């Protein structure tokens, strides 16, 4: 058995190997619990510790992203927090077959297209509008991602277009108060 408390590295789906971040894992667990209306720092810390311990048992040095995801889901299910494991699985918005891979930032810099960033900003707008509905937020995020993928297949997408499509989807789905908060965040 390893004496490590967490893996040293993570092998991302792209094949890149980066340093494991316990802080990033804890933030992900905290957000997931928040989506199911559980705000408990001690629980977040305990679940994070349990996940790290399991990862050390199965991959003491380098953990694959899929192994991390599997460990998180197992530990959340073990803790019997209603909807948490399903929410975590959705939070990452694994949408198969996406053709969009790159975002062009306002500065001109190119970054990897990450649907979770859309979800995160949309979720903040939902909360600011007083709406706690993670499932609708996820569904609308997927609608935005599919729209982007349909309009920009295989091409880099400007960040301004992502924001415009997000606003469009919110308004189209009769979420004007969420759209208003989204626009306010955009310009703050």
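Q: What amino acid sequence fits the structure above?
A:
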């Amino acid at each position: 058995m390893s004496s490590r408390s967490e893996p040293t590295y993570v092998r991302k789906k792209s094949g890149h190997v980066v340093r494991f971040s316990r802080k990033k894992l804890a933030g992900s667990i905290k957000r997931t619990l928040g989506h199911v209306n559980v705000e408990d720092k001690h629980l977040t810390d305990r679940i994070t510790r349990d996940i790290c311990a399991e990862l050390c048992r199965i991959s003491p040095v380098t953990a694959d992203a899929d192994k991390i995801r599997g460990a998180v889901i197992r530990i959340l299910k073990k803790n019997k927090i209603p909807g948490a494991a399903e929410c975590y699985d959705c939070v990452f918005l694994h949408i198969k077959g996406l053709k969009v891979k790159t975002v062009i930032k306002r500065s001109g810099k190119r970054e990897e297209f990450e649907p979770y960033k859309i979800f995160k900003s949309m979720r903040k707008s939902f909360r600011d509008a007083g709406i706690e509905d993670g499932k609708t937020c996820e569904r609308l995020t997927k609608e935005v991602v599919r729209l982007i993928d349909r309009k920009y297949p295989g091409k880099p997408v400007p960040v301004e277009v992502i924001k415009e499509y997000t606003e469009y989807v919110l308004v189209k789905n009769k979420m004007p108060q969420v759209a208003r908060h989204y626009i306010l965040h955009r310009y703050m």
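Q: And what stands out in the fold?
A: The mean pLDDT is 87.
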